[in-house]
Structures are given as structure tokens and as C-alpha cells.
């Protein structure tokens, strides 16, 4: 604050005269005062009424105003005597003969009286020269433009500056004042439209500019970030896909837990011959986007679905429709690269199966509506579903085994005994590859002008195949013999699909009896290859790594599975369980041995008499028991531990030192 003369509070005659002039009455209204006749008669005096002129009234009013203004000023002077006050940021005082006002300086200001700095309290008089200075507090403003690494956004960062404006706070007259500071904050926006535009040009920002956001930044009173340009994200394309006609994924054994068993739900993945399985959609290309600097951003590349058709399927309508060729269960396997579809035939047993009814051996699925009893045997290359119980019988499947009621003195095996299917898959894959290369070689030779002019060209495809088998494809005949050996070894187990035998017979006729070979052109080789590929896909669905066993209760039985085992009912009693996956028992485990390569979870363990209840897992796996009875034996790797007392929430692992840890 610059220096100021202390105001002395004297009368201002000029102001008073101004007030008088403004208050003159130009047109006063006449007033008449009348006395009642009775009053004058009582006084005995004759009243003489005289009319006052306009000039007399004006003089009278001016006189009254002068008197009033002088009285107000005198009263104000009396109130301010010996006091100090602050008005409009300036200090005023009025001394008296008996008292001088005082002020105290507050922190944050510098007060000078008559050129000298006052640090605490001082006395004021009307003659003092007072100056108050305040510190200059100012923060510089700044701004910058940040370009996202992807160049999809340009962000304007604005850091507001400010200046603090100080002045004395107004205070009423008092004998002593503690001076107070009143601060106002003045915000400083550093942005200028021309400078902003220039910087955007320097950065190459020319696309997706947001005018409203720029205007908001120019008008801002607070620091912040503003997205002043936005790129356009590319619209991603979509790979080819299959629109399924129904819920065909491997959920054919949807189930709900009941008190004494499993209730299989109606499956939607059974089809009849000629039924539509799915519609193949081509890939949908994407649309390119652009950055804020105008660069094009390409959409992702798309690809058509790589479909492998297995047995029981075909393509119609120019390869856009997948249709079933036979009744059965639709099975689908999908990986990142390929999608395989096949129809697995089903053998349906409407009632109970007893030993006297013979065995069931089938290369597809088997479904038995009743019980399996009296030492019956059921074998299937894929899934087996038993709606009733299994008693003193043997069930063997390549994939899943589902038993809806109890398993008593039975033997269940899933996947473990069908490892030879993997060997078949390798043989078929190698034969298919050889046929593909052979067909390509034949086409290449046929297109050669030298071959057409030669004597061999006149002999036809059989002579060429004989030569290629001798020179380049010596492995093909040995692979065909290997396939024949596999068929002979597994035919008694009903693992050989009839079409596989037909294809093998065609291979023998085509490549071992060349004189009478049915091959007439390359298309015949391609046809055999395509049929073989379908069979290979079909058998791949029964590989043992997909196996699973689900039952409600087991008593004195044996359960072997290359995948997971789930006992979801009352539990397991005196049963041996071997799993290369995970074992989960939601009920009670009492007696018997349980081994699981990927861990065990048990709700409760019991000990009955001298029977042992033992759970084993390999090193690196864990054992979980919600409620373990004393005497339960657990083993991890080669280390064994016996729970001496009842224990809840057991979660056992083996430490690096080889000791048991309970988490």
C-alpha cells in the first residue's frame, strides 16, 4: 500500500453547502392554520390570517436543514474523539485532549509511521504520516501439451498462477485497533489462443481437435487437464466364427445334486441325421482409425475359422452350413488355431443291464437307462452314462463316466485304458500328411511338359505313384501296415470304427495293388485323405486327457481315471481311487486309499475300526480336509503324516525342507 495522509475528520463546509443547495424546495405547499371559532371567542381575540408567500417558506426550510446537518456533524465528531478506524483500506483517527488512539500491527504487514517501521503497538495523532506495505505474493502460471505415446490424445496441462492482493480490513471506530489484513486472490490464466494454436502446429496436432475443450481451458479459473484433441480408435474386425444351432458344447451331462444321487438334465447336443449343427460366418474386416497427428491406425487383421470336420458331419451351401450325417451327440473341441466338430454315435439301453444280457462294447457313447448289475461289462470309446446304480460290474470309457446312483463293488476306469487312441491319432496324422504331399507331387509332375512327352506320361497316374513310392514316399506303405496292426490289436475291444476299416482297405488297394488300384486321378487321393482326416478328428475326441468320473457314492470299489474324479454325494467307503487329475469328495471319506496327481479336497474323513484312511499326492501338491478325524493318514511325496487328534480346516503342504506345513 502506498503512503497515505491520516484523515483528521474536520467539518467539510463544501459538502454541507452542497447538501443545502440540493435540499432547497422550489414549490412548497401552503398550509393554513385555523383555530376553532369557539377557541377564539373564548380568548376574546380576533384572529387575523395572513398568507405567507413562497419565499418565506423556502428560507424556513433551508434554516432547518442547516441546523440538522450541523448537529449530525457535531455528534459524529464527538463519537470519533480519541478513536481510530479503518475505512476502504485507509486508517483514520480523531484525537482528543484527554486521549490518543492506538493501533497494533499484525503479522504479514509493514506499517511505517512518519517513515519509521512500527513493529508492535503505537500511538496515533492526526498529524502522523502512515504507510502500510504488504508482501508481494505471486505464483507464475504455466502450461504444456502432452501427446500420448499412442498419439490418440493430446492433453493440455494448465497450471494456474495467482497474485495475492492485500489491504487493511475495515473496522469500526475504537480507542484501540488490532489491524487486520483482508486478502483477495487474483487467478492468472496463462493461456492465449494464438500461442496455443502455434504450439499445436509445432506438435503436428491437426486431427480430432476439440474446440469446446479448448475454449473451456481458455476460460478456466482453476488448474486442470483438458483433452484438446482425440484420435479415432480403429474399429476392430472379427475373426470368422460358428453360430451354433443349439448348445452343443460338451455340456451333455449337466447335473444337479440330489440327496442320494445325480439327476442328469435333458441334453441339447443330440442331433438327428440331416440336422443343422451350425452356420459358418466369414471374418468381418475392421475399419482404420487415425491419430491426432493425422496418421492412419490400421484395424486388426482377421482370419477365417480353421474348421476340422470329424466323422458324422459335412458342409453344405458352399461350405457355410455344418450338417449332421448321422444321429448322435455333437462334440466340439476348440483351440486357438482350430475348431473340430464331429457327431459321436450313441448306443442306448432302455432298461437294466445284467450279465445274462451280454456285454456292451461300442465305439461311441453308451447310455443305460437302468442299473448295471451281476458282473456286467460296459465298454465305450467315448462317454458312458448310467442312470441307475453299478453293482459288481466293470465300466470302461475313453472319456467320461457318469453314474447317477451308487457304485457298489464295482470297477470304473475312464481314459486310463484307452491310451492306444493317442497312438492311433499319430498314425492317422502321419498317413494324412503323406497323402497330402503325394497328391501335391503328382500335380506338380503332371504339369511338367517333359512328363507329358515321356512314355510314363502315357501310362497314367499308377505308374507315377509307383515311382514316387520308390523314390520319395517309402514311409507310406509302412504306415499303412502300422495302421493295420493297430486295428487288429484293438478290434476285440470294439474300439475300431467301421469307417476306419474301410479306409484302411482302400489304402491297401490303392498303394499295394497298383495294377488294380482304384486311383484314377489326384482327386481320388484327396478323397481318401479327407475321409482319414475326419476319422482322425473323431478319435481325437476320446483321448484320455479329457477323461472324468462323476458319481454320488462308492462302496468297496476301484476307481481309475486319467482326469478328475468327483464324488458329490454321501462319499466313499473302503474304496481305492487313483486319479491323474484332481479328486474332490464332498461327503465322507472312510477307509481306502486316495491318490490324486493334482491335489485332493475332502469334506470329512472318518476312521472305522482298524481300517486306514489314507490320502496321497505327489510333491508340490496339497491336501485339504474340512474336518479330519484323528488317525487320518496324509502323504505328500515320500513324506507321511498321521493326524493324532481331530483337526478342522486342514490344508497340508510340504516345505522346501521336506516337513509338513499346515496353512
UniProtKB/TrEMBL annotation:
Cleavable signal peptide: none
Q: Tell me where on the tree of life, at the top rank, the source sits.
A: Bacteria
Q: Which Pfam families match?
A: FapA, FapA_N
Q: Where is this region: Disordered?
A: 1-36
Flagellar Assembly Protein A N-terminal region domain location is 169-334
Q: What is this protein called?
A: DUF342 domain-containing protein
